[in-house]
Amino acid sequence: MAAEVPPALTFPPPPSGPARLVVLVSGSGTNLQALIEACADPAYGAVIAAVGADRGGIAGLERAERAGIPTFVHRIADFPDREAWDAALTTATEAHEPDLVVTAGFMKILGKEFMARYEGRIVNTHPALLPSFPGAHGVRDALAYGVKVTGCTVHLVDTGVDTGPIIAQGVVEVTDDDHADGGEALHERIKTVERTLLVDVVGRLAREGHRIEGRKVRIPV
């Protein structure tokens, strides 16, 4: 018996004004900074309505505060369980009425309530060419496998781990020297490609909207 094909989902761009973004971060916020700089151009078609984090005292929050962007922090340790944390994260995000959510180095798995509210509109990056090498150690795992090229993936988040529909990918060559430093230089080269790709994809989604057909993400042109 053939598997049931899920219905296509369409997410049009906002009818008026730029798309509103909520960006979730856990660390240095270099992808966030790239988005902040892109959003400074009105032609980009998006504004960052808020930046959320799962811990305080991080550079990502400092970047947002310097740019005058509202922030919120919800630490898992401050809640009785993951469900309560997820509910609080969902409520805090909803308060800023985002059209898209971007998880830019956000190192927590989103829960059922958040996914139910925003699935199909959550954009993530991963430092490998999915579906190969998912999870927290994509660069290390690619090197250990002996690949000659790797890269980064911008994809929509679903309920799995790095399993959502792929939007775009960028390729980075692996050199012999990359094995000597444990992949640090390779990861930096991947991050450079990743920032450019993320900015391009988020801008296109904001300006043009998107349609999900099975595992295909179509951005009108």
Question: What does this protein structure show overall?
Answer:
It is built from six helices and ten strands, in the order ββαβαβαβαβαββαββ. Strands 4-3-2-5-6-7-8 form a seven-stranded mixed sheet, sandwiched between helices. Strands 1-9-10 form a three-stranded antiparallel sheet, with no helix packed on it. It has helices spanning 30-39, 59-66, 82-94, 112-118, 138-145, 184-208; strands at 9-11, 19-25, 46-53, 71-73, 100-103, 122-126, 149-156, 166-173, 210-213, 216-218. It is 32% helix and 24% strand.
Topology:
Blueprint: E1 9-11, E2 19-25, H1 30-39, E3 46-53, H2 59-66, E4 71-73, H3 82-94, E5 100-103, H4 112-118, E6 122-126, H5 138-145, E7 149-156, E8 166-173, H6 184-208, E9 210-213, E10 216-218
Parallel strand pairs: 2-3, 2-5, 3-4, 5-6
Antiparallel strand pairs: 1-9, 6-7, 7-8, 9-10
Helix pairs in contact: 1-6, 3-4
| Number of helices, counting only DSSP H or I runs of 4 residues or more | 6
Distance linking N and C termini: 36 Å
Strand content: 15-25%
Main sheet properties: 7 strands, mixed
Quick synopsis:
This protein has 221 residues and is α/β, with parallel strands linked by helices.
Summary keywords:
single chain, 221 residues, alpha/beta, three-stranded antiparallel sheet, 10 strands, 32% helix
